[in-house]
Amino acid sequence: MHRAKAAGLACALLLGVILMLALTSGVVAQEVPPAPYAGLVNPFEWSDAAAISAGGLVYGQSCAPCHGAAGAGIPAVNFGTEAFATGLQAAPDFYFWRVSEGNLSQGMPPFKALLTEAKRWQALTYIASLGAPQPEPEPDEVLVLQLDAPGRTAAGEAVEFSARLLDDQGAPVAGATVEFFLKLDFFVNGMAQIGEAETDEQGVARVSYGPRQSGDIAVLARHRAGGGAVFEAAGTIEVTDESGPFYLPSAGLHADLPLPGLVFPAGVIDAPDPLGTAPRTVLRIPSGMPLLAFAAYLSAVLLVWSFYIRVMYNVWRISGGVQPRSPGSGAVSVNVRLLPTFLLGFVTVVITVLVLILITGPYSHPHLGH
Amino acid sequence: MRARGLAETVAERVERVSLAPVRATSRRYYVFVALLLTVIAWGAYAYLTQLRYGLYMTGMNNFVNWGFYIFNFVFWIGVSHVGAVISAILRLTHAGWRTPLTRLGELITVASLMVGGAMILIDMGRPDRVLNLLWYGRFQSPLIWDVIGVTTYLTGSLTYLYLPAIPDFALMRDRLGRQAKSWRWKLYSILAAGWQGTAEQRKRLHRAERYLTLMIIPIAVSVHTVVSFVFAMTLRPGWDTTILAPNFVIGALFSGMSSMLVVMWAFRRFHHLEEYITEKHFRYISYLAMVLMFAYFYFVVVEYATVMYKFRLEEKELFTLLLAGKATPWFLTFFIGAFVLPAILFLNRRWATVPRLVAAGILVNIGMWVKRFVIVIPTMEVPLMPVDFEFATYSPTWVEVSIVTAGVAGFVLLLTLSAKLMPAMPLSEMIEELGEKEEAGGKEHHEAVGPGRHGEVSHA
């Protein structure tokens, strides 16, 4: 009895220790990033305004869809808090690793293929600035907001909207938040926010966005001053719709086939056509001859005409042998082989001409193609 | 020719009837040929005018640069497919009833290929540039495929016309060349290439015919396919559709069958072949034509339905033009002429056979001719610029109408002249078949004149 009790107590103790260790390891939230990410530091200064504004562009395109314009899109990692900014600056290598390799189990995609290292660091710099304490609200003054929207773009192509905030003396106002809106007509009808940016030292806030809809679209920039006053500027952008709504596929085949030039012309077949976007036929020869296509066609022609030659040969053989007896008493003979010989010769000449047309064509010779 | 006192055998009768047009020429014939030559001469004058003043004399312009000549080319190449069906397909299926019609089918093919080819050359304002096809031809070009295809098909059809005619030429050499020095004996001797009907010669002839029979069907299909590729390989809405190739092939077979009905009637009437080309033949050809009509209707409906379901912008404009615009009368003419009226005529078997079927054949030809117009010209009239362009217009001038009419006259002339050169039916084959039937029928065994015994029958 006494021994069983002791054993049970030992087990409970062991379990408790294990549990505690597990719990404590859970508390240590951050893992150590693996090489080559371990120990990396931000090449930019955390307060580098150029890096922050460049990072803002990257953030707007790549991060804002999930993390929100202010970084509060995913509550578990709220960039808008000071705690997060501090943690980011303390362990930049961990967050750089997260951005580069992603964390797919939590839904974070890897960006190392999409963004250069510089862009990733710029984004992190910007993210750190999100948690920085907000600048003091501007005094209630008259501000002027100017919107600069590019005149036109094609659907799917990203453009940069920029807005300049000036005070009544014409001096630029830095550090102000400007929201950008686009009039969307896609399930919702109204002004939808496409991004948010802070004005830099020149008072310019920039947002990058690729409109998807075509037509004349209204753009709006808005700044809410600390006192509640709202300053807006409006513009329009013309978005042309190309062949498809969201993307322009490149014509031709992408194929890394063995023996390039054998099946299709060497290399990728979608080299841009200098004249426009007409798809280029597979049978063209930019460099080297597509042997199989040409050979197939030539063989078909030769096969058919070889049958003709055999037919004419048989006719020629028909004409051999007995000469017809000329009726009556006159001994006139006629060359009965005349027509079959002519036919055989004719067929041979025609097939020679046709094959020569095909073989000597300007783009049929390998060394002539370029 | 025959022993006196005995009735004419079946074989002798078919020979007499078939060779009668070759032997004697009526005044009516000369008048008819003179009429055709007049039409052709007027067409030649029109062509010389076009050569002198350029294509300005036609109705073609910057927008519609393919006009009457091109769609007539397509029409004639389409008509030419009858030979492949009658001679080749029906031969492969051992359809014995087709024997009297094979020569007519091949004649139509050869004549229409020649007229069709001429249309293309006429379409060129600078015909000397045809040589560029030889010097600079590119195998990637649908026009080169056209040249090679039509040349191949014309050679094959001429050969296919010639081969079964060799025994007939031998027969005519022996029958009609009474004098050694007569031009007929010389001509037919050359054409007959020494045919004596020996076993070895027959073996070679059958072998050659077999090769051609096998080849001519894929060649015929490929020819109208490459003709369709001239349109289907472009990006022009209305032409840029994958269904154009089968559409053209089936349409060609359909027009060919219908031309066959008309030509059959003409030869039957003027050469008194009623005993050999019977109502049965008309009905059987009309069955083929009907099947092809429903098939072609299917293709037309499928082509239009898939486009009209979603109506891209340019195709919407094209179909507005076709169904509710300037080209609607043409479209309706095609529809009624090629489908509605012929269907009524084909299916109404209570009416007299030959008149209704020949009328159907004529209507189909007119309807399919208009369809080729509808394929080519309204499509080119649709503006491709995203600007509010007016539709281009095209109307043929007297030059084009004259030349196209001369083309029809040329086709008829080729058939008419061939009637003087060779019998309209494959004589030797018919003699063989009728001789076999006669023997099988248990009639008295006459000295059936087979191809192997020409030299033995004494001339009267």
Lay out the secondary structure.
The complex is a heterodimer of chains A (370) and B (460).
Chain A: H1 2-27, H2 49-67, H3 82-90, H4 92-101, H5 117-130, E1 143-148, E2 152-154, E3 159-167, E4 177-186, E5 188-198, E6 204-209, E7 215-224, E8 230-240, H6 291-318, H7 338-359
Parallel strand pairs in A: 2-8
Antiparallel strand pairs in A: 1-3, 3-6, 4-5, 4-7, 7-8
Helix pairs in contact in A: 2-5, 3-5, 4-5, 6-7
Chain B: H1 10-23, H2 27-53, H3 68-79, H4 82-92, H5 102-123, H6 131-136, H7 142-176, H8 183-192, H9 199-232, H10 244-270, H11 279-310, H12 313-324, H13 328-347, H14 353-381, H15 398-421, H16 427-440
SSE string of chain A, helices as H and strands as E: HHHHHEEEEEEEEHH
- The computed structural class of chain A is alpha+beta
Percent of residues of chain B in beta strands?
Answer: under 5%
- The outline of chain A comes out as elongated
Give the amount of beta strand of chain A, in percent: 15-25%
What is the share of helical residues of chain B? Answer: over 70%
Largest interface: A-B, 53 and 50 residues
Oligomer: heterodimer
Kindly state the mean pLDDT of chain A as a whole number?
Answer: 75
- Main sheet of chain A, how many strands, which sense, barrel? 5 strands, mixed
What integer value in Å does the Rg of chain B equal? Answer: 24 Å
Q: Stretches of chain B where pLDDT falls below 50 for ≥5 residues? A: 445-460
Count of DSSP-assigned helices of chain B: 16
